[in-house]
Amino acid sequence: MDELSLRTGFEIELLAPTGSDRQVLADELAARSGGRVRRSFHTDSEPSVVPGVGVFRHLSPAFDVVDADGSPVARLVDDITLEADLLPVPGRSGHRGWYRVLCDDARLLRLIERHADPDAPLTTVLDPVAELFGVHAEVVGSAVRVDDSRGATVAVAMPLPAGRERPCEIITPPLGADHARALERLLGPARELGFTIPQEAAVHLHVDGAPFRRPEAFANLVRLFGHWREELWAALDTNPACRRLAPLPEALLDLVEQPGFTVAAARSTGLTKYADVNLTQLVTDRPLRDTVEVRILPGAIDASAIVRRAALVEALLARCLDPRPLPPGALLDDLVGVSR
């Protein structure tokens, strides 16, 4: 089980050595492919410590690598779940002049991303946003803030916290063949540059979501990740330190056993992307990324290890496409029909 047949995208969480950053790897990948690097923004969110604000959403530096023909090679971004290896260094915030743009409204953040230039320095990046609101950006210490005409804060640009340049999530385009070779072209240079596996690391897999919208296939997906959770973690060697994993909601497990259930009904069960498997794109009419995302592979920097585990996942997903319900109490080996 060391080959893949499905078109699969990978997200691989790595850590740059102290003093380095994800742009170093991006530049190396571009050089090896005869391509170039384009700076962009990556969107993420984190809990807020400000009273009355539940979540802060932010844009952080991301690097898109394309080859000589302009085809995507990889996208390198921050991952805020990676924290344990980052030791604060006093006075080292704003590495290379990098910054984050913070906002408490997802709609505003999408507007900001559309109008802000990711190559602009911190001091001017919010100027186009200020112009939209008919105001001027204000410098506050080392930060820049835009308030609307009534004093409500729209966004703040702040120096990147010390160490946050080191997390490096490699996001591949969908790979249709030679998965191990394609991954090794990304991971080999990372190893040579001293990148390592963070303590909380995981590897995520994305496969085409369309086949799993059939109720029978969706129900089997829910059964697999709901009733075989411990077995899956053991078989895949899931990293217990990995954050943002969780079991599927019990209400969802109950739903798929009801006669005539609809996939759309799963929206009301408490489904979230931060689970062992992300099914949220299957239950929306406007998927952002039309995939099933399996999130429980452990961190790795070796292509063969990633593909070996991904092959087991692929075999299990293939069984989920069989309209027959997964048999309760079966072993994983029985579900895939092979011995690992």
The secondary-structure class comes to alpha+beta
Shape: globular
Number of helical regions: 9
Give the radius of gyration: 21 Å
Biggest sheet features: 12 strands, antiparallel
Helix content: 25-40%
Are there runs of 5+ residues with pLDDT below 50, and where? none
Mean pLDDT figure: 94
* Extended strand count: 12
What is the CA–CA distance across the termini? 8 Å
Pattern of helices and strands: EHEEEEHHEEEEHEHHHEEHH
Strand content: 15-25%
Provide structural commentary.
The chain has 340 residues and is of the alpha+beta class. Helices cover 27% and strands 24% of the residues. Strands 1, 2, 3, 4, 5, 6, 7, 8, 9, 10, 11 and 12 form a twelve-stranded antiparallel beta sheet that branches. A hairpin with a 7-residue loop joins strand 2 and strand 3. The protein starts with 7 loop residues before the first strand and ends with a helix. The mean pLDDT is 94.
